[in-house]
Structure formats: C-alpha cells, structure tokens
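step 3/5: co-fold with magnesium ion
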Amino acid sequence: MVGEHAIEIGSVALSVVVPCYNEEGGIEELVRRVAVVCEAAFETSYEIILVNDGSTDATWSQIMKAVNVGRGVTGVNLARNHGHQLALTAGLHQSRGELIFILDADLQDPPELLPDMLKRIRDGYDVVYGQRVARHGEGVFKRATASIFYRLMGKIVEVDIPADTGDFRLMTRRVLAHLNAMPERYRFVRGMVSWLGYNQCALPYERDPRFAGSTHYPLRKMIAFALDAATSFSVLPLRFASYLGLLFALAGVLALGWVGYAYVVSGTVAGWTSLAALILVLGSIQLLILGVFGEYLGRMYMETKRRPLFLIKEIVALPVQSANPVHNLDQGLRARLSDVA
Ligand code: UDP
Ligand code: MG
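step 4/5: write tokens
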C-alpha cells in the first residue's frame, strides 16, 4: 500500500490531479464531489491524485483518510513546500490516465464541468481549459490584479496565453507527455500548455468561492508568479533596456540643444537641481534595467544547478481494484490520445 507506485500509463481512463497546500477543511468534500463525477463518466477507471505540498496543517492526514475510503485516491506527499506549480507538476508526473483533469483543491473550479469538457475532447480537442467569465467570492483587489496580470502578459508574451484561465483543464495524454518532458524549473503550467499548441479550446465558467480556508496567493506570491510567467515566455523586458537607452539618448541630445541655446541667449543655466534630477533619473533607470537583467540571470543560474523539480517523501494508494483502460473511451478518441510517432 505504501511504497513504490508503478506508473503504467493508460491503466486508467482519467487522472484527476490536485495540488493541496493547507486545505484540511476541504479535502473530504473535494473527494466526494470529484468521485461522483468520475464514477458517472468512467465507473471505476479513474484515479484522484492529491499532492500534499508540504502543508503545515492536517491536510496529509485528511488525504490518507481519503485514500482509505477507497474512492480511487492516491496521496503524494512532497518532502516540503515546493509551490503550487511544482506540486501540480509532481502530480502530473504520477498520473497514469489517458485523460488528465487538473483541479484546485478549494473547489473554486467546479468538477461537475467534466462532462462538458469531455464532450469537447470527443469533438477533437486536445486541451479544454476553463475560462472564467465571473469570479465569485474574490475581492476587488484580487480581481483587479488578476486582470492586470493577464492583460500585461498578453502584451509581452509571444505565445498566445488565453486570459482569465487558471490550470483548470482537461487534456489528453499526448499533450501531457510533452508537458512532462519540458524540464524547466520556473513553471507556468498554463502557459506551457498553450505553447504546446495542438487543438485547444475554452470552456466558459463561473468561478466559485473557496469551499474552505483562504487563498495562498498573497500579493508577494502573485508578483513572483507573474515574474516567473513573464521571464519564462518572453525576453522582451531585456530588449526594453535598449529601447530606454535609445529614448534617453534622444532626450539627452534635445536637452543639450536646449542648454546650448539658453547659453547663447541668456548665459549659463543655473542649476544644482537640474543636475541632481538628471543623476537620479538616470541612476534609477540603470538600476531598474540591472534588476531586469538580474531576474533573468538569477533564473538561469538556478536552472543550471539541475536539481530535481520536486522531492516525493511517500506515495500512498490502495491496491488497484480495477484497471480498464478502454472504458468509456471510444476508438476514435483512443487513437488520438498518443502521438503516432
Ligand atoms: N497550492 C499549493 N502550494 C502552494 C500554494 C497553493 O499546492 O504553495 C495549491 C492550493 O492548495 C490550491 C491551488 O494551489 O489547490 C491554488 O491555490 P489558491 O486557491 O490559494 O489560489 P487562488 O485560487 O486564490 O489563486
Ligand atoms: Mg483557489
């Protein structure tokens, strides 16, 4: 029961992957609701992978309890807190399903949308992502910052990352195989999936309030997340330095012209203030650019260490009772699940 977990790809139809950090109040309800939709769609051919991301509350014991109830739950216990995106990555690496369904543990993304997403997969899509048309139970600040984030990302990033989407999505194994093969440490999973291409479509939905607990994305983490996202998909901020340099060179030439003109017309321009202002402006712009370079350089440095992305302390699951890979997946869909190559 506890120990090595052989990953036999395709031994279940669906894997549900859920990163959990301090979610003790919601695990039971999460498993109940998810199991109902999974059973309706795939009978017993599914697994629910709950990844405990170094929680400091009773999340892991809640997960163990859920495992023992016997509704297809696998508990993955990380060695420490690795952060949302790496916890999700750990779960994705453990998943065996032909289809993969990513959820948040707080039930903000309704699992009941699975049949709608499944329908679109059957229509020929490889990724169906939830797109929020409304967010319930989230403050003005959260909504405003999220909105600015997605709009700004849209401006600087070369890949087309759809706005107002989280990691809530259903995707096929062939897309996941490529995603799992991407080795980067600073992961912005939704962007990486967009980058992969294939056929993707949106499913509009209304985001529910949290079932229990509170958000783990305070402003500090949101900024770090935004920086990871921006730096891993764009080098435009680096080019920004050249543009600014050009702009200031132009401004400098104009200012010099003006100073020369003033000298001829009315003598020297008096000024400690103007000099101080110039030095401050130029100095701060140089520091800012240095900071942008630093963001990239630091990430490059960390990437070169090639440390494992996450460490798993233990994996807990009941022995497999049923493994029926073709269950409820029609031939056409099955054929599409893995690349021909
Ligand atoms: N999460 C995680 N590790 C962390 C922070 C968050 O695994 O360090 C999980 C969390 O349990 C939840 C998901 O990531 O399932 C999204 O987090 P949250 O709901 O706090 O973000 P929000 O919905 O407020 O953006
Ligand atoms: Mg949430």
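step 5/5: annotate
The CA atoms of residues 10 and 98 lie 5 Å apart.
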